[in-house]
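Posting for a labmate who doesn't have an account.
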Amino acid sequence: YDLIDGLYHSTILNRVIRKISADAVPEMFKIQVVDLEGNRIPDIEQACFAYTANLKRTHIKSYFTQTLKYGTGFLYIGNKEEDQLTNMFLLHPKDLKPEMDESTGEIIEWTYTTQDGDITIPDEDLVRFAYDADIGEVFGMSFMGKLVHTLHLMLNTELNLAEIVDKYAIPILQWLIEIGDDEELQEDELEG
């Protein structure tokens, strides 16, 4: 997540993702529920209204941006008064850990890590949307995921190369220098 955040804030990717998010969520929107033939389902729309009444464009845009950045967007909807959402906010995926039911493999709740400790959140209080996820997976693939994976491999290779040089190449060079001459090398000879 830190590498994704660094790339997002220091490259043009932040403007690209913000543009995609802004284009995906129009200024004026109305949520409609339709079946496979395109027919509206008013009963379900009415049931959804409790959740969508306070849903603003900024919520959807931020949710979509987070989904593109991290692969999965998590929107907390646990604050309700009379089945109306009163306060919705995003939770960072790196701070969430699912708690599974061992027998069924279903997610029961989530543990949200804060500076003050862990908070348990019921699964029904989180809306999650995974971008480019495999079937049955909770977490999706980031819009930048393949780029991050490639960079991670490159950076890791550079770190491994530095480690190899430190552990093997430098001792061999020192050994070769010591074997080559019986006399002691001066400081300026090592630098030159």
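Reply:
Got it, the structure tokens are right above this. The chain is about 45% helix and 20% strand.
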